[in-house]
Design goal:
Membrane topology: Single-pass type I membrane protein
Subcellular location: Cell membrane
Pfam family, one: LRR_1
Protein name: Leucine-rich repeat-containing N-terminal plant-type domain-containing protein
Strand content: 15-25%
Family: Belongs to the RLP family.
Number of helices: 9
CATH architecture of one domain: Alpha-Beta Horseshoe
Distance between the termini: 5 Å
Helix content: under 10%
Shape: globular
Mean pLDDT: 84
CATH class of one domain: Alpha Beta
């Protein structure tokens, strides 16, 4: 699975110093103790807000037991008893936001983020002449934001409406009257239309604009070049097209420029790139850019993160990259870069933590100076043309957690494993697609890989047996050895891998029976309705440790070997399995009824064996089964009807001439056959069409965790959060079972 990142733009970077004005505001809001009670009008406004909540998490107890609302939970007042701050973040509030809050004429800061509030955003809040900070992010607010009258003297500086359900067009006339606006975060909604072009007009303090994760389309407006104070511009995960306008590079104050996953085209002009001397994060990945990385990139001395992945860029990596000595992250995967890595002086990049050039056309040997990057956490060189043997100097990388070298032309697997086994920090290792036709090494005594969770040595055509040293990897969760030429039986020590839940040893030459030891694997016996979430800790900066989740199903794949015997009845003990593949072997006997005990099973492939008998009707209880294949066996009798069996194609049953039933359009007339409902061809076709439509709408799929975006708050307790959103994306790994890791 080559997917290293699960979403973009969430990585911590250095936080700019809080402006003096903001610091003064913080003192004003949070340091003043009220000398008198709030007014009846303000108390009424707050109680009306409370009445609009269907769930207040005990807030009513605090608010109704005190007559002075300045003493209520989440409320702060100034010395005159005026409500100046409402801070009710992450309290589990459910309901709507009452327009009555707009009646608080001295309110400076309103923070309702991280709740379950729904309905629209009252226009009274945006029309307020007192509110400076408005944060309603991470709720379920919805609907359109309507045009508001252009009124002067709006004080608002920070608007954060991110991670809600807003739709429609953002009203430009509403922005025009917000002369003091400094930060606008409307990311992770469903806003549409063209990008805002007038957002910076008459706004000398405007520094943050985040439009990412919406449905904006069209080109990037050149008018953005007028945002002379802008420091952060993010509009990734939209449908933007065209080229990066030259005017955009006039914003020399930019520190974060992020447009990933759009449809932007063109080249990076050297003279344009050189203007952005203050750039800390450049993220243009997932577009349609062409051309080379310009040498002028070396003039960006503050650059910490460079993301140009998944484009059509080519040429050699410029030596000037070595001049960007602050770089911590270089992600260039899925392009057409060529040449050797020796162009880059890695000795100068002592801060480098993440380096990913997967799926390019790079050649040569791995340069020795890359091992001088002692802070490397993740290194991926997979799917290139590197050759030679691994250097012992890789042991210098004491913090290396993810190493991907797969599908190159490396040799000497024995030497490679001996060198890497001492890497105590290593969590995930992918070295498949190398060492072709070598022998899988085994050792009488083996120590190492103490923390290894994922190991992929697939696609190597290795000879030998399943090596006993694997039994020493007590933390191993995922093992991929498919597409080799390993032989011999599956060893009994497999049950000693107490953490293993993903095993793929398909496409080998393994022999013997399916051992009952496989049925004793603890993680596969534990029922779990969802894929396992692996938490992989990655330190991106001293400020924060991110834990990045990767979803992986419990799987056992023994397909395409030379296994014999019957399918053990004990297989029903593996109640945690979501996928079971025993296809293309020499198994015989009946399908065990006990498979019906694996109630969360989604994939069952028993095709191309010598299985006999009837299809157990108990399999109809597998309500999550989305793929079923028993083709090319010697099964007989009726195919069960109803349930998931109504959704499987004919190809799931072909090559079994003794099977019958309406699914196969071959009716069961035998007196010994179990009764099957007989329907006309026309009725059958109607049912199949309905089943397909139903399956498409309600089909079983893997749920992916939504990666929410970081928020940028300019004032108060949460300052401007100069995040690149890269850390929650750095799924450096353990999605070994999917195409991203390999």
């Amino acid at each position: 699975m080559q997917r290293l990142y699960s979403s973009r733009d969430n990585t911590k970077t250095k936080m700019p110093p809080l402006p003096l004005l903001a610091a003064s505001l913080v003192l004003l809001i949070f340091s003043v103790s009220p000398a008198s009670s709030c007014t009846q009008e303000e108390k009424t406004a707050l109680l009306q807000f409370l009445d609009g909540l269907s769930q207040d998490s005990g807030l009513a107890t605090s608010w109704r037991n005190h007559t002075n609302c300045c003493m209520w939970e989440g409320i702060a007042c100034n010395e005159d008893g005026n409500v100046t701050d409402i801070s009710l973040a992450s309290m589990g509030l459910v309901g709507s936001i009452s327009p009555s809050l707009g009646n608080l004429t001295r309110l400076l800061s309103l923070n309702l983020s991280g709740n379950l509030l729904s309905g629209g955003l009252p226009p009274e809040l945006l029309l307020s002449r007192s509110i400076i900070v408005l944060d309603v992010s991470f709720n379920k607010l919805n609907g359109d934001l309507h045009n508001l009258p252009s009124t002067p003297d709006r004080a608002i500086k920070v608007i954060d409406i991110s991670s809600n359900l807003f739709t429609g067009y953002f009203p430009s006339t509403t922005l025009e009257s917000m002369k003091n606006l400094a930060s606008l975060n409307m990311s992770n909604n469903s806003f549409a239309g063209n990008m805002l072009s007038v957002v910076c007009v008459d706004k000398p303090f405007f520094v943050v604009l985040d439009l990412s994760y919406n449905q904006f389309y069209g080109s990037i407006p050149p008018e953005l070049g007028n945002c002379s104070s802008l420091r952060m511009l993010r509009a990734g995960q939209n449908n933007l097209s065209g080229t990066l306008p030259a005017e955009l590079f006039n914003i020399t104050s930019l520190e974060h420029l992020s447009f990933p996953n759009n449809r932007l085209q063109g080249k990076l002009a050297p003279k344009h790139v050189a203007r952005l001397r203050n750039l800390v994060i450049l993220d243009l990945g997932g577009n349609e850019l062409i051309g080379k990385i310009p040498n002028s990139i070396g003039q960006l001395k503050r650059l910490e993160e460079l993301h140009l992945d998944s484009n059509n860029m080519s040429g050699e990596l410029p030596p000037a990259l070595s001049k960007c000595t602050s770089l911590t992250t270089i992600i260039l995967k899925d392009n057409r870069f060529q040449g050797e890595l020796t162009n880059v002086n890695f000795s100068a990049l002592s801060n480098l933590k993440f380096f990913d050039v997967k799926s390019n056309k790079l050649t040569g040997t791995v340069p020795e100076n890359i091992y001088s990057c002692s802070n490397l956490t993740a290194l991926r060189l997979s799917y290139n043309g590197f050759h030679g043997q691994l250097s012992p100097r890789i042991s210098n990388l004491k913090f290396l957690r993810f190493l991907g070298l797969s599908h190159n032309n490396f040799s000497n697997i024995t030497n490679t494993l001996q060198i890497l086994s001492s890497s105590k920090a290593l969590y995930a290792l992918s070295i498949g697609g190398n060492f072709r036709h070598e022998v899988m090494p085994d050792y009488d005594i083996f120590h190492g890989f103490e923390n290894l969770m994922g190991l992929a040595i697939n696609d190597c055509s290795l000879y030998g047996n399943l090596p006993s040293w694997l039994s020493k990897l007590k933390n191993l969760k995922m093992l991929l050895l498919e597409n080799n030429q390993l032989s011999g039986p599956i060893p009994a020590w497999i049950k000693s891998l107490n953490s293993l839940f993903y095993l793929d040893i398909s496409n080998n030459s393994l022999t013997g029976d399916i051992p009952t030891a496989l049925m004793e694997m603890p993680m596969l016996k534990t029922a779990h309705s969802n894929p396992i979430i692996i938490q992989l800790s990655i330190y991106i900066s001293p400020l924060r440790q991110y834990r990045t989740p990767s979803s992986v199903p419990k799987m056992l794949n023994l397909g395409n070997n030379k296994l014999t015997g019957v399918i053990p009845q004990e297989i029903g003990q593996l109640k945690g399995l979501l996928s079971l593949n025993l296809s293309f072997n020499n198994l015989y006997g009946e399908i065990p009824q006990s498979i019906a005990n694996i109630t969360n099973l989604q994939v069952l492939d028993l095709s191309h064996n010598n299985l006999t008998g009837a299809i157990p009707y108990a399999l109809g209880k597998l309500h999550f089964l989305s793929k079923f294949n028993i083709s090319n066996n010697d099964m007989e009798g009726p195919v069960p009807t109803g349930g998931q069996f109504s959704t499987f194609p004919d190809s799931s049953f072909v090559g079994n001439p003794k099977l019958c039933g309406p699914t196969l359009m071959r009716y069961c007339n035998s007196a010994h056959a179990a009764p099957v409902s007989i329907i006309s061809t026309e009725q059958y076709i109607d049912k199949v069409i309905f089943a397909i439509a139903f399956g498409m709408f309600f089909g079983v799929g893997v749920l992916y965790d939504q990666m929410v975006l970081s928020r940028y708050i300019y004032f108060g307790q949460r300052y401007l959060n100069w995040n690149s959103t890269r850390a929650q994306q750095m799924n450096w790994a353990l999605s070994l079972g999917w195409h991203g890791f390999r």
